[in-house]
Specification:
heterotrimer; A mainly alpha (389); B mainly alpha (155); C alpha+beta (659); B: mainly alpha; Helicase, Ruva Protein, domain 3; elongated; C: 659 residues; alpha+beta; disordered C terminus
Chain lengths: 389, 155, 659
C-alpha cells in the first residue's frame, strides 16, 4: 500500500515538473547572452590588449576590424526571437496532455512489464536470523562458511565443514578447510594426508606435486599411515615408476588395516602392476589363511602385553568373521578353535567346534579329526550325527 | 564445467609452488643476448593472456615461450628466424606488431595516407597571398555605425 | 520496497526523458517559450529520479540484498563495506546506470548553469540530451536492468577481485565524467545544426563544456593508468588495451576540438570541421562504450559480454552517429567560410595540431578495430599490440610535439616564424644541453633516449615562452614583470601549463622506457639481492586470512647505502568465492622514481621468486597529467569562459534593444 502511495507521489512530481513551466509566464527579456554580447566582449578584450602592448597594436588592428565587421553584421541581421504565444495555444495544450496522460501511461506500462511490485526487500541481516528448519544442506554450508569467515580460528567448525565438503564432492573447498585446520591446530600426518587426498581428488585423481610432498611428509612421520602410503604408491604408478610402486604395494600389504577391502585392493593392485610389468604371479599365492606376516609377528613381539593381546584378539575376530562367510575351511576352524582354547575362552571354543561340526557334518573323516582335537584341548567332543538329527 | 576446471587450474597454479616452470630462466644467455631476448619478448604475445606480451606475463605459457626464445637464440638463430618459427607454430596471432604485407596494408598505410590527404587539404584551405590575409580598415560610415552600436550596448 | 522504488524511479526518469525529447524542441519550432522552459525542470526531475534509482541500487549493495540478481552476481556478504558500495558500478548494469547518472548530471548542469545561453539553443541542446537519456535508459530497462529480482539467494558470487580496490571507487566515475561530458558538445553541435546558426559565439559557448569534459577525461585516463600500474601487478602503465584505447580516442579528438574551437571563436573559421569534431568526439565515446560493453573485444578490463546488448548499443551508435552526420551533411553546405589565414599563423598551427591529432586518433582507432574486422572477414586472428602503437603513434605525434611551443607565439592570420624561433632559442639551447648531458650518461647505441629527453625539455621550457614574452621578462624590471605576470589572462597560464604537462609526461615515459631495469630472482630467507643502488633482503614470508581472501606475503627489507629505507610486502591473494588469485605489488617511491616488487612463486622451504623493477622518473607520467588537469581547471576559471557573466550584467535591460 505504502509502495503505491509513494508511486503516486513520485508520478506527481514527474508530471508537475512538466506542467509547472507550462503554467508560468515566461519573462520576455531573459538574461540570456546574445551573440552581440560576446562580440562586444571580444572587442573590449582586444582593446585591453592593445592598451597593454603598444607594439602589437598594428597586428591587432586587423583583428579589431574583423570583430567590428562581425558586430556590424550581427546588428544588421539581428533576428527577432520568440514571439509570445498566448496560453491555451495548441502546443502548450499538447504538452500538458503528454505530461498528464502520456507520462503515467509510459511509466505504468513499462514498470508493470519489467518490475516486481510485490516483492519485498531482502537484506542480508533479515535473512540471517531465519531458523534452520527447512534449510537445505547447501544453505547450511553457506551459514557455516559465514560463521567461519567471522571466526576463522574455529578448528572444530572447519573439520565439520571439511567432512561435509568431502561428501558433497567439493574437494577444493575441502582442501581449503583442511588447510585452515592445519593452520590452527598444526600439521599431523593424518591431516596432511587428508589434504593431499583432497587435492588429488580435485585433480581428477591425478596426484599433484604438492599433494605428493604432503604424502611424503606424512608417511615419513607415520609409516603406518595407510592413506599416505596408498597415494604414494598411486603417484609412483602414475609417474610410470612401476617397480617402485610394486615394492610399495608389497610393503603396504603388511599394514594392519581394519578396512576389510584393503587387503584385496592391495592384492589386486599388486597383480595389476605385475601384469603391466609382465612379471609372473609369485609362487606362493597369498595364503587364504592370511596368517600373520613376519613383520606382524615381529611387531607383536615388540608390543606391550596389553597391546599384544589386543592385536591377537583382533586377528582372531577377523578369522571368526571370515569363517562365518566361508565355513568350508577346515584349517581355519582348527586354528580358531585352538586360538580360543589358548586364550582360555572355552565357551567360545566349544561354540566354534559346534559350528565346524555343522559345516562338515556329512564328512565323517573330518568329524573324526575335530573330535580328536577337542579331546586334546580338553573340550567336549561334538556329538555324532546319529545323535544329532 | 569449464569454469570449474579453470578455477581448479588457477588454484593449482597458486598452490603448487614447485611447478615445472619457474619465472627464472633455465637457459642463461650472455648479457647482450639477454637484452636482445628481452626486446623480442615484448613483441610476442602471450597467447593465452589478454593483450600481454610474454615479457610481461607470468603465465606458464609465457614462461615456456621465453624459454623457447632463449634456446633458439642460444642456437644462433636471428630474431627473424625465431619470429618465423613461432609464427609457424602459433600463427600470426603471436606477433604483437603485425607484419607489413598485403593483408595488413590498410592498417599500416592509413595513418600515412590520412596525413598526406589531410595535409594537402589543410594546405589548400590556407591562403598564401598576403593581400587576401590582410583585411582593410573599416570605412568611415561603418566605423560610425559601430560606435553607435557600442554606445548603445555599453550603456 | 526500496529496490522496487528504485526501479520505478528509473522508469520515471525514462518517461520524463521521452517527454523532454519532444516538448522543448517542439517549443523552438512553434516559438513557445513555455514549452522550451519545461526542459529546465524536467531535466532536474530526470536527475532526481536517476539519483534515487542509483541510491536504491547502492543501498541494496550495502545491505547485500541477494534478491536483486545484480547484487547477487557481483557482491558477497563478507566483502569490506567500501567495496560493497563501489561494487555498485563494478559490473555492466551498475556501470551503465552510472553512465546514465552522469549523462543526467550534465543535462541538469545545462539547465542550472546555462541560463546565459540563448533560449532556443538551450532548448535544443536539452532536447538532444533527452534523446540520449531516453535511449540509454531504454537500453538499461530492456537489456541490462540492475533491478531484476529473484528468490533471495543465501550468498553472493563476489566481485571480481581485481576490482576490489579503491582505484575502482574513483576511476570509472571520473572516466565517465569525461566520456559522457562530451555528450554536451555533441548536443550543442546537433542543436546548432537544427538551428542552422553556427558562428564564433557558438564556439564560445561550447568551449567551457569541452574544457570540463576534457579535464575529467584527462584525470580519468590518468587514474586508470595508475590503477592498472599498481593493481595488475606487472608494472605496466599503458597497455594499448582496447578498453584504454576506447577512452584515449575521445581524448585525442577532444583535444583537437579544444584547439579548433579556439580558431572558430577567434576567427570564425574551421566551422564545419569543429562541428564535425564535436560529433566525432562523442561518437568515439559511444564507440568506446560499445567496444567495452558488447564484449566485441576481450581484454584485461572487460567484464561484460552479451551479444544482444552489443547489438542494441550498435543500433544506438549507428542511429546517433549516422543521424548526426546526415544532419551535418544537410546543413554544412549552408555554413559560410570564415576568415582567411596564411599557412604560418596561429590558425595554421592549430590546423596542424588538428591534422596530427586526427591522424593519431585514426591510427589508434584502426589499430584497435583491425583485428576484429580482420577476423570477421577472414576467420584468421592477428594481433595489433603495443609495439605497433608505440611505433606508429609515436612517429605521428613527434612532429606535433616539436611544434607545440611555436603555436601560442604565432600571430593570428600571418605569423613570423623567424622571430618566434629567436624567442624560443633559450628552450632550444636547454634541450640541446640536456641531450648532450643525457647522451654522456647513457650507453652507446641508445641515441633515442637522449633525443626523447631533449624533446621533453624543449616542451617543458618552450611552453612558457608566451608567458615570458607577454610579461616582458627580458626588458622590464622585476616589479613590472611580476605585475604583468599576475595580470596575464588565465588562459595564457593554462596553455603554458597544459603544454608543459605534456612535456613532463613525455619525460616520464622516455625515462621509464629507456632506463627501466627488471630483475627476476629467487631469494632464500635472509638472502639479499642488489638492484641498482638498492639492496633487498628477504625476511621471510607470512600468511594471513582476511574477510574474503587469504594472502601470502614476503617481507622484503630495502637498504640503500647500508641503511634500511623501506620494508616491502609484495603478496599474492586468493579469493575463494571466485577461485581467483591476484598479485599485490609493493611499490616504494624515491623522488619521482619507484621500486616495484611483485611476488612470484613461494616455495615450501621459504624461497620466494621476486620480480623487481626499478622505474626511474615514472611518477612524472602522472604528474604531467595532474598539471594538465590543473591547467584545465585554470582555463575554466578564466573570466572569458564563464559564459559571459560580466557581459550579461552590462546588457541587462538593454536586451530589448537587440532583441
Amino acid at each position: 500500500m505504502l509502495f503505491w502511495v509513494i508511486t503516486i507521489v513520485m508520478l506527481a512530481i514527474a508530471v508537475l515538473s512538466i506542467l509547472l513551466p507550462l503554467a508560468r509566464r515566461v519573462e520576455q527579456s531573459s538574461n540570456a547572452v546574445q551573440p552581440m554580447d560576446i562580440y562586444v566582449d571580444q572587442l573590449n578584450e582586444l582593446e585591453a590588449k592593445v592598451a597593454s602592448d603598444k607594439t602589437a597594436a598594428e597586428s591587432l588592428a586587423q583583428e579589431k576590424a574583423e570583430i567590428s565587421r562581425r558586430i556590424l553584421k550581427q546588428a544588421r541581421t539581428q533576428d527577432q526571437i520568440t514571439s509570445s504565444v498566448a496560453s491555451g495555444s495548441i502546443p502548450s495544450i499538447g504538452a500538458s496532455l503528454i505530461a498528464l496522460v502520456g507520462l503515467p501511461v509510459i511509466v505504468l506500462a513499462t514498470y508493470l512489464h519489467t518490475g516486481s511490485p510485490g516483492q519485498p526487500d531482502q537484506p542480508l541481516h533479515a535473512r540471517a536470523t531465519a531458523n534452520l528448519e527447512n534449510t537445505s544442506i547447501d544453505e547450511m554450508v553457506v551459514i557455516a562458511e559465514r560463521h567461519l569467515a567471522k571466526n576463522p580460528d574455529d578448528a572444530q567448525g572447519w573439520s565439520v565443514l571439511a567432512g561435509v565438503y568431502g561428501r558433497m564432492n567439493r574437494p577444493m573447498d575441502r582442501a581449503r578447510a583442511l588447510q585452515e585446520i592445519i593452520r590452527i591446530s598444526g600439521a599431523t600426518p593424518e591431516r596432511l594426508a587428508d589434504l593431499g587426498e583432497a587435492l588429488t581428488v580435485a585433480g581428477d585423481n591425478i596426484v599433484p606435486v604438492r599433494a605428493r610432498q604432503l604424502f611424503e611428509t606424512a608417511f615419513k612421520s607415520n609409516p603406518q599411515l595407510a592413506k599416505a602410503g596408498f597415494y604414494l604408491a598411486i603417484a609412483q604408478e602414475q609417474e610410470g615408476k612401476l617397480e617402485e610402486a610394486l615394492a610399495r604395494w608389497t610393503d603396504l600389504a603388511a599394514l594392519r588395516v581394519s578396512d576389510p577391502e584393503w587387503k584385496s585392493m592391495v592384492a589386486r593392485k599388486q597383480k595389476e602392476i605385475r601384469g603391466k610389468l609382465g612379471l609372473p604371479e609369485p609362487e606362493t599365492t597369498p595364503n587364504t589363511l592370511a596368517g600373520p606376516s613376519a613383520e606382524q609377528v615381529e611387531d607383536a613381539a615388540n608390543l606391550s602385553a596389553a597391546d599384544r593381546a589386543e592385536m591377537i584378539e583382533g586377528m582372531v575376530a577377523n578369522l571368526a568373521s571370515r569363517l562365518e562367510d566361508n565355513p568350508q575351511d577346515l584349517p581355519g576352524w582348527t586354528r580358531l578353535i585352538r586360538s580360543y582354547a589358548v586364550l582360555g575362552k572355552m565357551d567360545k571354543a566349544q561354540a566354534a567346534l559346534k559350528k565346524a561340526h555343522l559345516a562338515f557334518s556329512n564328512q565323517d573323516e573330518i568329524i573324526l579329526q575335530l573330535q580328536q582335537q577337542a579331546i586334546q584341548l580338553g573340550l567336549k567332543p561334538p556329538v555324532s550325527k546319529e545323535e544329532n538329527p | 564445467m569449464l569454469r570449474r576446471f579453470v578455477a581448479t587450474c588457477l588454484l593449482f597454479v597458486w598452490l603448487m609452488p614447485a611447478a615445472s616452470t619457474s619465472a627464472l630462466a633455465q637457459t642463461t644467455l650472455s648479457p647482450e643476448m639477454e637484452v636482445r631476448a628481452k626486446a623480442l619478448f615484448l613483441q610476442l604475445r602471450c597467447v593465452v593472456c589478454q593483450n600481454q606480451s610474454i615479457g610481461d606475463s607470468d603465465a606458464d605459457v609465457a614462461k615456456d615461450l621465453r624459454e623457447i626464445v632463449r634456446e633458439q637464440m642460444l642456437a644462433g638463430k636471428t630474431d627473424d628466424d625465431i619470429r618465423n618459427f613461432l609464427v609457424a607454430r602459433y600463427g600470426e596471432f603471436i606477433l604483437l606488431k603485425p607484419v607489413f604485407a598485403w593483408h595488413t596494408a590498410v592498417l599500416w598505410l592509413t595513418p600515412i595516407l590520412l596525413l598526406l590527404v589531410g595535409g594537402v587539404l589543410a594546405w589548400r584551405a590556407t591562403s598564401r597571398s598576403p593581400k587576401s590575409v590582410k583585411s582593410d580598415a573599416l570605412s568611415k560610415q561603418d566605423e560610425n555605425e559601430l560606435q553607435e552600436i557600442l554606445r548603445q550596448h555599453r550603456d | 520496497m526500496i529496490v522496487e522504488l528504485g526501479h520505478l524511479a528509473l522508469v520515471l526518469a525514462f518517461a520524463l526523458a521521452v517527454v523532454q525529447s519532444i516538448v522543448p524542441i517542439w517549443g523552438t519550432f512553434s516559438g513557445d517559450r513555455r514549452l522550451m522552459a519545461t526542459a529546465d525542470t524536467s531535466s532536474l526531475g530526470i536527475l532526481f529520479f536517476v539519483t534515487l534509482s542509483f541510491g536504491a541500487l547502492m543501498w541494496s549493495y550495502a545491505v547485500s540484498d541477494f534478491s536483486v540478481v545484480n547484487v547477487w552476481q557481483n557482491s558477497h556478504s563478507q566483502m569490506p563495506f567500501l567495496f560493497k558500495l563501489t561494487g555498485t558500478w563494478g559490473n555492466h548494469e551498475g556501470s551503465m546506470l552510472l553512465w546514465v547518472f552522469i549523462l543526467a548530471l550534465f543535462a541538469a548542469a545545462v539547465s542550472l548553469f546555462g541560463s546565459a545561453l540563448p533560449p532556443s539553443l538551450r532548448a535544443n541542446v536539452q532536447g538532444v540530451q533527452a534523446w540520449l537519456l531516453a535511449t540509454f535508459l531504454l537500453f538499461i530497462l530492456l537489456t541490462s536492468n540492475p533491478f531484476a529480482r529473484q528468490e533471495a539467494a543465501l550468498e553472493g558470487q563476489d566481485l571480481n577481485p581485481i576490482l576490489q580496490d579503491i582505484g575502482l571507487a574513483i576511476h570509472p566515475p571520473m572516466l565517465y565524467l569525461g566520456y559522457v561530458g562530451f555528450s554536451i558538445t555533441f548536443a550543442f553541435a546537433i542543436a546548432a545544426l537544427i538551428d542552422g546558426k553556427i558562428d564564433s559565439a557558438w564556439a564560445r559557448w561550447v568551449r567551457p563544456w569541452t574544457f570540463i569534459a576534457w579535464t575529467f577525461l584527462t584525470a580519468g585516463i590518468s587514474m586508470g593508468s595508475y590503477w592498472a600500474y599498481y593493481e595488475l601487478g606487472w608494472g605496466g602503465w599503458w597497455f594499448w588495451d582496447p578498453v584504454e584505447n576506447a577512452s584515449f580516442l575521445p581524448w585525442l579528438s577532444g583535444t583537437a576540438l579544444l584547439h579548433s574551437a579556439l580558431v572558430m571563436e577567434k576567427r570564425d573559421a574551421l566551422k564545419i570541421w569543429t562541428v564535425l569534431l564535436a560529433i566525432l568526439t562523442f561518437s568515439l565515446s559511444l564507440l568506446g562504450t560499445f567496444l567495452v560493453r558488447s564484449g566485441v573485444l576481450t581484454s584485461v578490463h572487460t567484464f561484460a559480454s552479451d551479444p544482444t546488448r552489443g547489438l542494441f548499443i550498435l543500433a544506438i551508435l549507428s542511429a546517433f552517429v549516422g543521424g548526426a552526420l546526415f544532419l551535418f551533411i544537410l546543413r554544412s553546405s549552408r555554413l559560410e567560410a570564415g576568415g582567411l589565414f596564411a599557412p604560418v599563423s596561429r590558425e595554421g598551427a592549430l590546423v596542424f595540431n588538428n591534422l596530427i591529432l586526427s591522424a593519431a586518433a585514426a591510427t589508434v582507432l584502426i589499430g584497435t578495430l583491425y583485428p576484429v574486422v580482420y577476423e570477421a572477414f577472414t576467420d584468421a586472428k592477428i594481433s595489433v599490440g603495443a609495439p605497433f602503437f608505440n611505433l606508429t603513434f609515436g612517429l605521428v605525434m613527434i612532429p606535433l610535439l616539436i611544434a607545440v611551443p611555436f603555436g601560442p607565439l604565432l600571430a593570428w592570420k600571418r605569423g613570423d616564424l623567424l622571430g618566434i624561433s629567436q624567442r624560443l632559442m633559450f628552450a632550444f639551447l636547454a634541450a640541446i644541453l640536456v641531450i648532450i648531458l643525457t647522451g654522456a650518461f647513457t650507453q652507446k647505441g641508445q641515441w633515442l633516449a637522449p633525443l626523447g629527453v631533449g624533446l621533453a625539455v624543449w616542451l617543458m621550457v618552450g611552453s612558457f615562452a608566451e608567458v615570458i614574452q607577454r610579461a616582458g621578462l627580458r626588458k622590464a624590471t622585476l616589479a613590472v614583470a611580476s605585475r604583468r605576470l599576475a595580470g596575464l589572462p588565465r588562459s595564457v597560464w593554462a596553455t603554458a601549463l597544459a603544454h608543459c604537462g605534456i612535456g613532463v609526461t613525455l619525460l616520464g615515459i622516455v625515462c621509464v622506457t629507456a632506463f627501466e631495469t627488471e630483475t627476476i630472482t629467487v631469494l632464500k630467507p635472509a638472502e639479499s639481492v642488489v638492484v641498482g643502488e638498492f639492496s633487498l633482503r628477504h625476511e621471510g614470508y607470512a600468511s594471513r586470512t582476511a574477510d574474503n581472501y587469504s594472502e601470502r606475503s614476503a617481507r622484503i627489507s630495502i637498504f640503500k647505502s647500508g641503511e634500511i629505507v623501506a620494508v616491502g610486502t609484495p603478496s599474492k591473494r586468493f579469493f575463494p568465492a571466485r577461485q581467483m588469485p591476484t598479485s599485490e605489488a609493493s611499490i616504494h617511491t624515491f623522488g619521482f622514481s619507484q621500486l616495484y616488487l611483485a611476488l612470484g612463486d613461494v616455495e615450501g622451504d621459504g624461497n620466494v621468486t621476486l620480480r623487481i623493477w626499478w622505474k626511474p622518473m615514472i611518477l612524472l607520467i602522472w604528474l604531467g597529467t595532474v598539471i594538465m588537469v590543473i591547467a584545465g581547471v585554470i582555463s575554466l576559471s578564466d573570466r572569458r569562459l564563464r559564459i559571459g557573466a560580466p557581459a550579461r550584467r552590462k546588457s541587462k535591460g538593454k536586451a530589448a534593444s537587440h532583441a
